[in-house]
Amino acid sequence: MKLHFEDDLDYQQSAVESVVGLFKGQEISRSEFTVTYRPETGPQASLGFDESSLGIGNRLKLIDDEILENLKAIQFANGLRPSECLASGDFTVEMETGTGKTYVYLRTIFELNKNYGFSKFVIVVPSVAIKEGVYKTLQITQEHFEGLYPKAKGYEYFQYNSSKLGQVRNFATSSNIQIMVTTVGAINKKEVNNLYKENENTGGEKPIDLVRATNPIIIVDEPQSVDGGLTGKGKEALNAMNPLCTLRYSATHVDKHHMTYRLDAVDAYERGLVKQIEVASLEIDGGHNKPYVRLVSTHNRKGSITAKIEIDVQRGKNIRREFLTVEDGDDLEQIANRAIYENMQIGTITCGKDNESIEVKGDGFDEVLRPGDAIGGVDPDAVKRMMIRRTIKEHLDKELTFAANKHPIKVLSLFFIDSVEHYRQYDADGNPVKAKYAKMFEEEYRKLAKSADYQSLFAEIDLDTDAAEVHEGYFSIDKKGKSVDTAENNQSNRDNAERAYNLIMKDKEKLLSFDTKLKFIFSHSALKEGWDNPNVFQICTLRDMGSERERRQTLGRGLRLCVNQEGLRLRGNDINTLTVIATENYEQFAENLQKEIEEDTGIRFGIVEQHQFATIKTVDDKGQISNLGVEQSEKIWKFLKDEGFVDAKGKVQDTLRTAIKDGSFALPDEIKHELADQYGDEQAEAIAVDVQAMLRKLAGKLDIKNADDRHVIRTREAVLQSEEFKTLWERIKYKTTYRVDFDNDKLIADCAKAIRDCPPITKTRAQFRKADIAIGKGGVTADETSASGYTTVHEDDIELPDIITDLQDKTQLTRKSIVQILRDSMRLEDFKRNPQQFIDYCSEAINRTKRLALVDGIKYRKIGEEHFYAQELFQQEELKGYLKNTLETQKSIYTHVVYDSAGIEKTFAEDLEKNEKVNVYAKLPSWFKVPTPLGTYNPDWAVVVDDEGEEKLYFVVETKGSTWWDDLRHAEGAKIKCGEKHFEEIASGIEAPARYIKATDVDGMMDYTS
User: Fold this and answer.
1) Which residues, listed in sequence order, are joined to residue 999 by a DSSP beta bridge?
2) Class of residue 352 by CB neighbours under 10 A (exposed 0-12, middle 13-18, buried 19+)
3) Is the pLDDT of residue 644 over 60?
4) How far apart are CA 457 and CA 398, in angstroms?
5) How many CA atoms lie within 13 A of 394 on its CB side?
């Protein structure tokens, strides 16, 4: 199989032209210098004479001012902020992973040679992985580039090797294009690298001096990993080569020297240049039966040493897995508010690179956790097995879809694992044997292959043999041929990595062919960067995704658009969807991916830059296409700021979101007239549409509330002081107290029955929820698309908690009563199935039954005539509300009604205003409370209705969207019942008392007047 390369992709051509344009005005030229050497054979060698030959290098004739002028023109055309001066010879090209960055800079080499005669190029990369990837790309593109650039035929490329320094001499003397590929680790240590030592293979000269003499153009792949900072060893090594210029290519630049071209993550996703992303998140339901603790990270800030951990916390009735910051000595039972953490505390916390850990101590154990390690969770192997199974299922589903649609596409899946020994181990004789992940894979693969859903894929296939042949591990390989975890921190480890990369890079094209059975690839970190394959459709992370840039690096292995069996690139989201199988829920994945993109690229989601609109295309009356330009863009930005649509930093405000949403946004007449004068009315209208479209993408979703909209709501004095309201208030203002009588034996029997009637207790379950991830200028969003059925997770090592104490804390009943209730429920066996779920069900059932008993036996008594809510409180207690959640009124005692939702409360207030029989009303403020055994109750409305001039009717109205209030199992329903009894008590002895009623709308309330 042979990959085909497209030479007409507009965004790649723009990136190439942007760099080539830097040297506009440069004549074809080269420099010459003398290279001496001592031949190993021949008459000259026997006499000990040196020979000399001509060295050929790059030559720049332009001065800095000319390059700066070219740079500004390119930046202007690309909508980038123009550089004020030429601070160095470094130029930055930002391209999102998967968009063909390597192809772009290789093609740039040939364009620079064609236009200006430059012929010496050094590609510097941070790791062996990327070096092997670049070298492989040079091999498979050679025929393509020689076809595009016939005059460049015979160009040479090589990987720098300190033991083959004759290649450096050839680099200096050859008149052909020369491309040297090296890792920064091979050139950045002067004291040990042969590059800086005199050598007979280079005529006694230092190889670095030959490189310097050629004045090479340096291309840095992933400069953020090469430089080591602005003054780091890597940057120093680059400068030592005396480059004509340095071209820097990455998706995640740290130092943005003279930005020349930019194709960021948002552009790539919106233009469909990379695969669409979806996440299948594995979520555990009911897995809170053990004291779970996971270390995320440790920190030392100004001497304060802390750790960020994940832990199961009790919040009210719910248990949630949360991230918390802890210190040495912290008590986990207090932090989590759960008895299951009894006697567990944080011990020593250590910080530092590659040395982060915390000690977790408890009764009889002392565990040290490193980042990503956890204790007390669901069996990690059970989780890994489910993730492997889901990955295989997604893989097979894609194979079925492609086969049904007659797409000849080989599907690949990639697993990132936590340790090589979990996939491959070695016996006493050094022979490789399958470890747990390999065994899990084959077991789950055979199970799925035998299911009816996939029979069409496995006709006449021996599943025992097939399962073993479709997966393989690619890991660093030591000198004995054994797989080891990847680390490139010294030469020995770099050699180990190189052996692995040689293997997988050679297999890159084979992997895409149906002739190769291998479809599932397992890797530690050997494939983290530098290797990607266009047909990776599933990525499964069997390790923690906690580190910065982890999601983007992981996604990068599969973002490239896929190819078919002819090596042709295919487009469209119906084919190109990358599925990530992870334990992180999709909302967190989207949120963390957005943070990584912001940190890596400097993209500021929801920020309008002053030069944002500079690249909007315009056409003059001669048909010439040009950009709107920075000056006009800045005028539009100033209008946005002056109108309050963005703040001083360009952050989008809710006013802009609202204006775009309701269609009221428009450019001011001044800017419209100026655009019309310059481009004509039709073009001016098109520009306005483009501006609005750009703002719509940047604005994202409407924020929930804007603090600037919060205002104090004033009383309407005419209504507050009216006789109608004073009379109403006299009827409802009194305070009461209560007592409760109930039968204890009946309560115990009812509680036991309530537990018997609870739903079945399920074991801990797992479910995959799938969501599409969308990356736009407003941010990263996740939209759920499907959810799988539940899978039971078997937990055999659960330590049963003290259920009596736990229920005593949650229900306030005596131990004796709880024991009796549990015995009579006849469901104690369920406690063993899922202890935490059983405790939750029992506490809810008991508390619900208690509510029924309390309400049934409650008696209210008015405290006395002198205990009441004074009418003056309406003026003394401040009421605040957000303007968008308020309704201006005339009959209410406040100028506005504050409502919680745009549904029942807003509609009820609007109908009260419209109804001619309603004289006065009040939405009762939060300080108007009725005491109940379940907490205080705040009724909704007090209303005065004029019954056709005959008499005034007084109501206290409880409104809800449905009639569930009579269901006393709800705490709120029980409170409403208590409120009813309170108003019955204060109504006694009053002529024409206020009636307490429940209604879903004003018409329902008016039914009580007839």
Assistant:
1) 959
2) exposed
3) yes
4) 11
5) 29
Q: pLDDT tens digits for 88-116?
A: 999 999 998 889 999 999 999 999 999 99
Q: Rounded to the nearest 10 degrees, how much is the dihedral formed by the CA atoms of 919, 924, 929, 935?
A: 130
- Cβ count within 10 A of residue 17: 15
Tokens matching residue 211? 């490189």
Give the residue from 64, 88, 125 showing the smallest Cα distance to 245: 88
Phi-psi region of 430 (alpha: psi -120 to 50; beta: other; left: phi over 0): left
Contact 751, 807 (CB under 8 A): no
pLDDT at 506: 61
Beta strands per DSSP E along 824-908: 858-862, 879-882, 886-888, 896-898
Task: Report the SS3 class of residue 557.
Answer: coil
Categorize the per-residue pLDDT at 43 as very low, low, confident or very high, splitting at 50, 70 and 90: very low
User: How far apart (Å, rounded) are the C-alpha atoms in residues 765 and 386?
Assistant: 11
Of 602 and 250, the structure prediction assigns the larger pLDDT to: 250
3-state helix vs strand vs coil in the chain, percent to 5: 40, 25, 35
- Report percent pLDDT > 90 for the chain: 38
Torsion angles phi and psi, residue 541, rounded to 5: -100, 100
Q: What secondary structure does DSSP assign to 727-773, as a single string?
A: HHHHHH-B-EEEEE---HHHHHHHHHHHHHTSPPPPPPEEEEEEEEE
What is the per-residue pLDDT for 548? 43
Of 449, 333, 353, 349, nearest in space to 396 by CA: 449
Which position has the higher pLDDT, 83 or 701? 83
Dist CA 751 CA 20 (whole Å): 81
The one-letter code for the residue type at 599 is E
Q: 3-state class of 50 per DSSP?
A: coil
Cβ-Cβ contacts under 8 Å for 729 (sequence gap 6 or more): 871, 942
Residue 466 pLDDT: 84
Q: What are phi and psi of 716, to 5 degrees?
A: -100, 100
| pLDDT for residue 439 is more than 60 | yes
121-178 pLDDT tens trace = 999 998 887 888 899 899 999 999 999 999 999 999 999 987 788 888 899 999 999 9
C-alpha distances out from residue 356 to 332, 349, 350, 380, Å: 20, 8, 5, 21
When pLDDT is cut at 50, 70 and 90, the band that residue 503 belongs to is low
Distance in angstroms (rounded) separating the CA atoms of residues 868 and 726: 14
The answer to whether 149 and 110 have CB atoms below 8 angstroms apart is yes
**Helix intervals (H) in 375-430:** 380-404
Q: Which positions ≥6 away from 895 have C-beta within 8 Å? A: 713, 714, 715, 716, 888, 889
pLDDT tens profile 647-690? 888 888 888 888 887 778 899 999 999 888 888 888 888 888 88
Q: What is the pTM of this model?
A: 0.68
- Reading the block at residue 791, the tokens are 């899978």
Q: Cα separation of 645 and 665, whole Å?
A: 10
pLDDT of residue 38: 52
Buried-exposed string 955-976: b where 16+ CB fall within 10 A, e elsewhere = bbbbbbeeeebeebeeebbbbb
Task: Look at residue 530 in the predicted model and tell me its pLDDT.
Answer: 53
Whole-angstrom distance, CA of residue 569 vs CA of residue 578: 16
Q: d(Cα 699, Cα 779) in Å, to the nearest integer?
A: 9
Distance, in Å, from the CA atom of 838 to the CA atom of 824, rounded to the nearest integer, reads 15
Type and span of the H or E element at 189: none
Q: Under a CB-based contact definition with an 8 Å cutoff, are residues 787 and 759 in contact? A: no
Q: Which position has the higher pLDDT, 215 or 653?
A: 215
pLDDT value for 864: 87
**What does the block give as tokens for 346?**
């944080």
